[in-house]
Design a protein that fits this description.
Blueprint lengths: L1 H8 L5 H11 L1 E4 L3 E4 L2 H5 L4 E3 L5 H15 L1 E5 L3 H11 L4 E5 L2 E5 L11 E6 L5 H13 L3 E5 L11 H10 L3 E6 L5 H6 L6 E5 L11 H8 L7 E2 L5 H35 L5
Parallel strand pairs: 3-4, 7-8, 7-9, 9-10, 10-11
Antiparallel strand pairs: 1-2, 4-6, 5-6
Helix pairs in contact: 1-2, 4-5, 6-10
């Protein structure tokens, strides 16, 4: 990218030619079957996630490792045991695999994402919600956001979630992701108690009429708690992405406020005293 910009400044490329090359840099084709969006991280601060479902284990693993090679980390979700085995083969000991239930982050040695001065809490109603909640956690940690997870806080035992929620508020969370299946009540309950953005994730646990996450989705969409944001069923990646954007804006706001305070103090020190 720097080379393209240098050639543009030196007149070796027209603006249109530079634009074509920059677009080409952001896309990479692997054996004619997939195009990786290598510029997403630069545009949005959020890495691309390879969806393993529907892909052969070998192809999904190759995509994740290719992302790690080029960007330092590659994310993959919805893995079967076969996908997991193929990923180990593709990584071949050259990359670290950080596991998140059925998802994983493939990390190049020595790489760490740039930290964002922000914090996110991830809560689940039950332990069955953990695979989806871990998708959100994976995206947040890949983007450099500090994460705390609290599980099994469902409203069947209402007393269970009060202390963990209070601890997250004291810790200084900027945003909360709340995953729940069955009746899907927990996100609305949390959103009615806190002055933070809350992202609800309906999970496909349940049975009978309204099972497979449908009842949870409708409960969240019909919540009396105004301001609750809801993603689609099992969309932990989408919830994590939304949480990253919220957390990043919170961090940017704090940085801007601190810079303004510093400028104000500097002006105060340089003023001449009144006579």
């Amino acid at each position: 990218m720097k080379d393209v910009l240098r050639r543009l400044v030196e007149g070796e490329l027209t603006e249109e030619e530079a634009l074509v090359e920059l677009r080409a840099i952001q896309l990479d084709e692997l054996e004619g079957r997939a195009r990786l969006d290598l510029g997403r991280w630069l545009r949005r601060g959020i890495p691309e996630v390879v969806l393993a479902a529907g892909k052969s284990p070998a192809d999904a693993a190759a995509l994740a490792v290719a992302m790690a090679e080029r960007h330092g980390q590659g994310l993959i979700s919805r893995m079967t045991p076969e996908h997991r085995a193929a990923l180990e083969v593709a990584a071949a000991g050259a990359y670290e695999i950080v596991e998140y239930a059925t998802s994983a982050r493939v990390v190049r040695p020595g790489y760490a994402p740039t930290s964002i001065d922000a914090r996110a809490g991830v809560l689940t109603a039950g332990t069955s919600d953990l695979p989806v909640a871990n998708e959100a956690r994976m995206v947040l940690e890949a983007a450099g956001v500090e994460v705390r997870m609290e599980a099994d806080l469902g409203v069947a035992g209402l007393h269970r979630f009060v202390a963990p929620l209070a601890a997250l508020l004291e810790w200084g969370a900027d945003v909360l992701v709340v995953a729940a299946g069955m009746d899907g009540v927990l996100p609305g309950l949390v959103a009615g108690l806190v002055a933070l953005p809350v992202i609800g994730v309906p999970v496909s646990t349940g049975y009978g009429r309204g099972g497979a996450g449908e009842a949870a989705l409708l409960t969240m969409l019909q919540s009396c708690s105004t301001g609750l944001t809801v993603v689609n069923i099992d969309n932990g990646v989408g919830a994590g992405t939304a949480a990253v954007l919220v957390a990043a804006r919170a961090a940017a706001g704090r940085a801007a406020s601190a810079a303004a305070d510093a400028r104000g103090r500097s002006r105060t020190r340089t003023r001449s005293p009144r006579r």
